[in-house]
Amino acid sequence: MEKQADIIVAGGGLGGSLAALALSHQGFTVCMVDAAPPADKTLPDFDGRTTALAYASVRLFRRLGLWDDLAADAGAINDILVTDGRPADRFRKGHQATGFLHFDSSQLAEDTPLGWIVENRRLRQVMNAALEASEAIRVIAPATVGPVETGPASVSVPLSTGETLTASLLVAADGRRSPLRERAGIRTLNWSYPQTGIVCTVAHEKDHLGIAQEFFLPSGPFAILPLTNNRSSLVWTEKADRAGSFLALSDEDFVTEIEKRFGPYLGALSLDGPRWSYPLAFHLATKFHGDRMALVGDAAHGIHPIAGQGYNLGVKDIAALCDVLAEHRGAGLDIGHGTALAQYDRWRQFDSASLAFGTDVLNRLFSNDNPALRLVRSTGMGLVNRVDPLRNMFMKQAGADLGTLPSLMQP
Amino acid sequence: MSETANKAESTRQAPVCSPSGTTVDAGEIDKFSAMAADWWDPTGKFKPLHKFNPIRLTHIRNEICAHFGRDPNAPRPLEGLRLLDIGCGGGLVSEPMARLGAEVTGIDAAEKNVKTALTHAAEQGVTVDYRATTAEDLLASDIEPFDVVLNLEVVEHVADVDLFLKTSANLVRPGGIMFVATINRTLKAFATAKFAAEYILRWLPIGTHDQNKFVKPEEARHALEGAGMVVEPPVGMTYQPLSDKWHVTGDASVNYMITATKPQLS
Predict the structure, then answer these.
(1) What would the pLDDT profile of A266-286 be if each residue is shown by its tens digit?
(2) What is the predicted ipTM?
(3) pLDDT digits (tens, 9 = 90+) for A70-89
(4) pTM of the entire predicted model
(5) Around Cβ B222, how many Cβ atoms within 10 Å?
(6) Burial class (CB within 10 angstroms; exposed 0-12, middle 13-18, buried 19+) of A52
(7) B152 in a known ligand binding site
(8) What are A158's strand-pairing partners?
(9) Distance from CA of B92 to the nearest CA of A (A)
(10) Which residue numbers delimit the Methyltransferase type domain (chain B) (predicted)?
């Protein structure tokens, strides 16, 4: 059957767009199919979230030529401060936090921040521009994919536009509810957290100095992440049954609530843009591939935002897929053959599962007020703070710099 | 345990036979014909062979490119080279070599293998000249000698190794290159390539290999030098069970590959 491209990418979100760009960078031709028209994805009310890009992920962004356009709008994380404790206690006179951790990027072997915080809207703008400029990528949007048909040498998908696309491989980057994954009968492990993520951007009087703060409060982690222009991105994990009442507050009362948690270190606060909320859930596909299909990003896994690693896990999927496919093509092999996909699966399953379960355990360990667990936490944090190799390992984990790194993410 | 690419690999080839039957082994032809239909199933009998394939093909591509001064990273680095794959089986090597640009002739004594390979190549849109014949018959047909001759996982199945390697070498043009991959005749090879792969891991049907037919690198070297080839030291291809990956190593005690070149006519 006549192929329109080497690879079809289904989904044009942050995962699908990056997959299309990275695969075309490897010399593959790509058709990317997206339900949303490109321009819609950069409207102010499309997505108010920010993404933490670990320093190893940024190596890939640099190699794809995306970083120059992003750098000016990315907030560098020079330090991460982690504090365990109830908000009211933290500002009481003479209070000692039960646990405290400091990760300092200057202790990394490489001269780099630990990561950057980027607004999703800005990421989408930069990716859209690169997709449009690429001659190897054809973007088909708005369009959705129908039932997949595989043959001995190809995979075909009918589109809602009436056209049928044929390629050697299909990359499913169609999100956490991935219809392609469901239709392929690939099962997931999944559960919801009784937590809601409240997200907003806050403008503040004082400079954050590139410090990311994470307070482990009994309701869940509360993170203040450095953005540009004296702004920070707030990721507030709250018990689901209480989140609604915070979201319903007036701007003024909402700011008062966040001030209670922030403390005074950034001076006067004000909201910059709307508040958003997202239910938090865990899912992990039991297989990262189907017949001539690879799952990447949210289609393969969704983890608790406690460590800011969700998107970075997807970046690693994409970079690993690039390596496996390039190796097979270089050996004259069919890139959609089960052997290539099984290799990708082996590479990514273990790494994803360990991080997914690791963040799950962290969240369970920290999101409570149990005195016994508080003792465990303070002991553990004290240990990590004092033992250099341990702290270094955590920093490398935060930088997505552990495990077998795909070539696009290597130093 | 094992470094047993050859397990399935050995199924590549039914033994090479001459019309007079000097190197033929009829029992072996039947054995491999029965296995031919499953060649391309990545989760089937040939799974270990499919896993072994990328590292082996990459090594061969790099060696050919180094020999002929080509860029191994070009889209079709073997463009225009005439390549003979002896014991092509289901086409697991012929097809990739054709995708890399080579003009491939794949021969196998088992008709069923050739038919499987032909069907698959047509499905993939890859052109390979597959023939059900033997190296001896091909040589006797006065075919123009090849730039590259691949002799992978075959010699451990033939009756007369010296004769077979000499025939293969005669199919290489002066200035051309030949690859021989097989299993060493060591205790370790017996334990892994034969015993573990067939009896424990069940990668291969029991009886796939006869360890007495395993060939030591110096025996292969001797035969090739006798046929006027310049022989490089062997490289090992080793399976590392923890990472579940194959690597090219210096350990030739089980699976190994020899590169030999034929001097230009002066």
Answers:
(1) 999 999 989 999 999 999 999
(2) 0.82
(3) 999 999 999 999 888 765 55
(4) 0.89
(5) 14
(6) buried
(7) yes
(8) A164
(9) 9
(10) 84-179
